[in-house]
Amino acid sequence: MSRVSEGSTIHAVNFSIGKTKEKLENLQLQGSNLKRVQKPSDDPVGNMEILSIRSRKIDGNQYKRNASVAKAQLSFTENAIEELTDIMVKAKELTISQSSNIFDPAIRQSVAKEVAQLHNQAISIGNRRLGNKYIFGGHKTLTKPFSDEGKYLGDSKQTKVEIGKDIFVPITFDGNSIFFEKNGTAMKSESPLKNSPFENIDKQFKTKREAPQFEEIIPDNNSELDINRIPANDPAAPKSLAEEARSSIFTNLKTLENALITDNHEIIQDLLPGLDDNIDRLVQARTSLGSTMNKIDYSVSAIEKNDIINEEYKSKIEDADVAELFTDLSRQQNVLNATYKSSAQLMNNNLMKYIN
Question: What is the pLDDT of residues 218-258, one digit of tens each?
Fold first, then answer.
């Protein structure tokens, strides 16, 4: 039979009071911040869910910041394309008004100066930048996209940002697809010197320039050919860059300017379909920008809805039930008081009580 000593009784009392005070302290801590899960050991599975929700919230905040930057960039680009559209509409109005042969050449000279200003404005818009980055240079955001003559110096790529899980939107555009016709489309406009006093001079220059040039070919020893020269401008030869040139906003404006200077109303008339194509392409670009911005709005809205759902789920896991918490707190306080009273009675004995 084991003997219960006073020391073991004291240790049992101290252990009981310590456990009760620990429970009461945990309840008081939960009452101070109304959080049921104070540390991972309180609910290991729930803690994993809480950490996952917090991680998704951090990602969502970054996606919303990316969306804000993307929308600002796209709005700036849309304003630039809107200004460019107004320029081309103005150019079309001038083209329609000057397409008849009833106008005096002096008037067309004045209109040509206005068209030249439109051309310069179009170049300026093409080289517009937000901060220190050009918006129409593709990936080459630090390189000026267009030369003063309208030659494109950028690339055909786009910079994209992630506005949602695996959702990317472009924030820069290549000026090649906005300012120029599609690849493989040859320039349709004729020379602005046609039917003008300078036409004969231009023909003489072209005749001299297009005269057959011959290149010497070193015959192979095994070759049976007797011809040592072939014309360099043979139809089978590869096309030059000039032949593969495409019409653009800049070339149409420059052609219009030259046609006005030379008083050539036929070329002015022929430019109308090209100007319509330019305007249509700009409208399509603005439509694409609008759909992209709508996509950003939908993505941000989806992130905000997910944040609300995640917060509700996190609250169910992490937050304490207030009514249950204060009920447990009151009950544990009573348990501690009862422990103190029973311990006082147990430890109040002394040696004189056991002497007869």
Answer: 444 444 444 344 343 444 444 444 334 578 899 999 999 99
Residue pair 275/250 in contact (Cβ under 8 Å)? The answer is no
- Sole residue written with tokens 């447990």: 328
Q: How many CA atoms lie within 13 A of 77 on its CB side?
A: 29
Distance from C-alpha of 319 to C-alpha of 321, rounded to nearest angstrom: 7
Q: Do 260 and 196 form a contact (C-beta atoms < 8 A)?
A: no
Residue 142: exposed, middle, or buried by beta-carbon count in 10 A (0-12, 13-18, 19+)?
A: exposed
Three-state DSSP string of 114-156: HHHHHHHHHHHHHCCEECCEECCECCCCCCCCECCCCCECCCC
Q: What is the pTM of this model?
A: 0.65
Of 125, 115, 138, the residue nearest 192 (C-alpha): 115
d(CA 181, CA 248): 6
Q: How far is CA 158 from CA 36, 103, 226, in A?
A: 49, 46, 53
Q: Which of 36-50, 169-183, 288-302, 303-317 has the lowest mean pLDDT?
A: 36-50
Structure tokens at 75: 């709005």
Taking the C-alpha atoms of residue 177 and residue 128, their distance in angstroms, rounded to an integer, is 16
Residue 8 identity: S
CA distance 253 to 268: 10
What is the chain's mean pLDDT, rounded?
77
Rounded average pLDDT over 163-169 = 90
Cβ(330)–Cβ(118) below 8 Å: no
Contact by Cβ (8 Å): 176, 152: yes
DSSP for residue 99: S
Tokens of 250: 């800049």
